[in-house]
Amino acid sequence: MSPTSVPVHSRHWLWPPMLLLGVVTATLAWLFIALLSGRQAGWMAVLAALDIAFMLRLGTFRAGPGRVALTLAATVLVAVAANWGIASAYLGGSMGLNPWDSALRMGPFMAWTLVQLANGAAELLWLAVALVIGWWVAK
């Protein structure tokens, strides 16, 4: 074995922290952009899918169905978390709460109602585009 060769059974432990970093940064970026612009910013789903796929790739997660499934699931998780945060920030702001307190107090039915009122067909289209792009980049 030459000194520059890589062992065949190397362990890849870096992808879970990279995935966590990608999910957190994408969620916070989506939340801040939406709150600053006053819109839902559904196009951020595409950037979130790209961010997560590239973080998994940087974390040396092997290509294949596992990385695709994890990318798609994390993209949906980011979309749900960002929409929950946007709804709780608007609701909590009108009641004098900061977004974190409001997010903890808001129930799923209230969040679902607010997300349905705020999102339209364009945001669903952006999420569908994000899932297709995430699938393509992650494979």
What does this structure look like?
The structure is a single chain. Helix content is 76%, strand content 0%. The protein is mainly alpha-helical. The model has no long low-confidence stretch (mean pLDDT 89).
Short description:
By secondary structure, this protein is mainly alpha-helical.
Our measurement of the CA-to-CA distance between the termini, rounded to an integer number of angstroms, reads: 31 Å
Low-confidence stretches: none
Helical coverage, percent range: over 70%
% residues in beta strands:
under 5%
Count of strand segments:
0
Major sheet attributes: none
Number of helices: 6
Global mean pLDDT: 89
Q: What overall form do the CA principal axes indicate? A: elongated
The gyration radius over C-alpha positions equals: 18 Å
Quickly give the structural class. Answer: mainly alpha
Order of helices and strands: HHHHHH
Brief descriptors of the model:
6 helices; 139 residues; mainly alpha; 0% strand; 76% helix; elongated
SSE blueprint and pairings:
Layout: H1 15-37, H2 44-58, H3 65-95, H4 99-105, H5 108-118, H6 121-138
